[in-house]
Design a protein that fits this description.
256 residues; alpha/beta; Metallo-beta-lactamase, Chain A; 7-stranded mixed sheet; 14 strands; 26% helix
Length: 256
């Protein structure tokens, strides 16, 4: 199983980068996880977009879904339109109405539905795509969000934490994983004065603590801006986690 970073930016793209999107390849399966702004162009740098077998969305924030729009145009107006087959799109409850509202702003409510076979997954559900077992773990963010655990036939695991604050939810979801992608949006942990219910992101320091508590093999920091101090983020994570730590960049790839 190989994971390749297409985009790791937060809500605004890094210079030359893209927002959250990851390509997973396992056997003959090609799975796209999240499709934030700028991700579709990055996807085309790696594979033919018609070769993707399914798209899986962690949550319905713009920086994780916006490039489903150019993807949909490519599938319905480009050369692929002649094939007529819809691409499976697994996404959170409420997605059908959400997508219709977005594209309805310019009078094309059916754009996403015309390109993708939308399946709204159940909260905390498990799935199988090709040879991969996929477990969706709810994590605390500002909207319904799932960390995504991918398990290969041999038992090796990659966990994508999506966007969330630090806490027991992500630790439980990623326990023992060979690779954890954890967000490091904040330069510092939230102040104790911020109520827990109002926290939806974490810092590199907290990501390192999660990785240590979960006993993962390797930590990759994602969802942090290139405008933050990258060296400090790396040092903060390494202060909490003794294993290998990296900061993701477009094209970064790992195999487990």
């Amino acid at each position: 199983m190989r994971l390749t970073v297409l985009g790791k930016s937060p809500a605004w793209e890094d210079a030359g980068g893209a927002c959250s999107s990851y390509l997973v390849e396992a056997g003959s399966l090609r799975l796209l996880i999240d499709c934030g702004n700028g991700a579709f162009a990055q996807l085309r740098e790696h594979v033919d977009y018609t070769a993707i077998d399914a798209v899986l969305i962690s949550h319905l924030h713009a920086d994780h879904v916006l490039d489903l729009i150019p993807y949909a145009y490519a599938l319905t107006l480009g050369p692929a339109a002649a094939a007529g087959a819809k691409l499976p799109l697994l996404c959170p409850p409420g997605s059908v109405d959400f997508f219709r509202r977005i594209v309805g702003a310019w009078g094309d409510e059916d754009l996403i539905g015309a390109a993708f076979e939308i399946e709204e997954y159940a909260v905390a559900s498990s799935h199988r795509l090709g040879e991969l077992a996929i477990d969706l773990h709810p994590v605390p963010h500002f909207t319904l969000t799932h960390a995504i655990a991918l398990t290969a036939p041999g038992g090796d695991r990659i966990v994508y934490g999506a966007d969330c604050r630090s806490g027991p939810e992500l630790i439980a979801a990623s326990r023992g994983a060979e690779l954890l992608l954890a967000e490091a949006t904040l330069p510092e942990p939230e102040s104790d004065s911020v109520p827990l219910a109002e926290r939806g992101h974490m810092s590199a320091l907290e990501a390192g603590a999660v990785a240590r508590a979960a006993g993962v093999g390797r930590l990759v920091l994602v969802h942090l801006s290139d405008e933050l101090d990258q060296a400090k983020a790396l040092a903060d994570a390494e202060a909490e986690f003794e294993g290998p730590v990296e900061i993701a960049c477009p094209g970064s790839s790992w195999q487990v």
